Structure formats: structure tokens, C-alpha cells
Amino acid sequence: MTSPEPLGAVQNRPSTVLETFPNPAPGRDYTIRMEIPEFTCICPKTSQPDFAHLTLEYVPDQLCLELKSLKLYFWSFRDKGAFHEAVTNEILEHLAGAARPRVMRLTGKFNVRGGIYTTIVAESRLEGWVATAPVSLP
Q1: Is 43 an active-site residue?
Q2: pLDDT per position as a tens digit, 16-70
Q3: Average of per-residue pLDDT across 94-115
Q4: Active-site residue among 29, 41, 50, 64?
């Protein structure tokens, strides 16, 4: 966990630093779901921008991801050339490495390119973790 910037400081550039904070309910499995509808990176073949809607879902263990650092982290990909498969797996690796969740899934729905939509789903699980059985409420 890194120290936050001083109160009133404005971060106006991308960053690869991922901040975390203690999970307020580490004894319970619960899901954190985040939508990132404006993700961009660069196509390594054409140098044209690629746009994607990312969905991040995770069950935290001891740490949660801090939202502002997450926003700046995603911004850091704006000028980076990467294939859809590579960037989705790279992001998952960084996020799971920082937060060490029980389970994390990242879904990248990339906009059409050459008439083809691409969706990439990558997942990371804490070894030995078993999901609790879902409860169906009336």
C-alpha cells in the first residue's frame, strides 16, 4: 500500500501505482464489481486506438483496490500498444498481484475492429479458495 497524495493534490497524469486498503469485511465472501466503460489502448498493428468496456469482478481477501489509483492505472494504457488478449491478461496479473483477492475476473469487451467484436475473459483464483454456495432468495 502506498501513501496517498496530500489533501488537495491533483493527479493529472497516468500512473502504474495501484493502491489498496484493508478489506472492511475479511470474514465474508462478497463481490466487488466495477465497470470501466472508457478503456483505451493502441492496436500494435495499425497504431489506431482500441476501445473497450472492461468489467472487473473480485472477491477480496485482505485488501481492496482503491478507485482513484485504479482510474489512473487504466489511463496508463491509453498510449500503449497491445493486443486485446495480452492487455486483458496483463491488467488481471497486475490487479490480482496488488490486491491478492480470493478470486478475480476481468472481462474486456473490445469495440468492433474489421467487423469483429472481441471479448476476453481472464480469471485468477487464490489457491485453495472455494466459493460459497449461492443462496436463492424468494
Answers
A1: yes
A2: 999 999 999 999 999 999 999 999 999 999 999 999 999 999 999 999 999 999 9
A3: 95
A4: 50
Question: Catalytic annotation on 50?
Answer: yes
109, with CB counted inside 10 A (0-12, 13-18, 19+), is middle
Catalytic residue among 41, 43, 61, 79: 43
Q: Is 127 helix (H, G, I), strand (E, B) or coil?
A: coil
Residue-range domain boundaries for the chain: 20-125
**DSSP letter string over 10-63?**
---S------EEE-S-TTS---EEEEEEEEEEE-TTT--EEEEEEEEEEE-SSE
Q: What is the CA radius of gyration of the chain?
A: 16
- Kindly report the pTM of this predicted structure: 0.86
- So what CATH class is 20-125? alpha beta
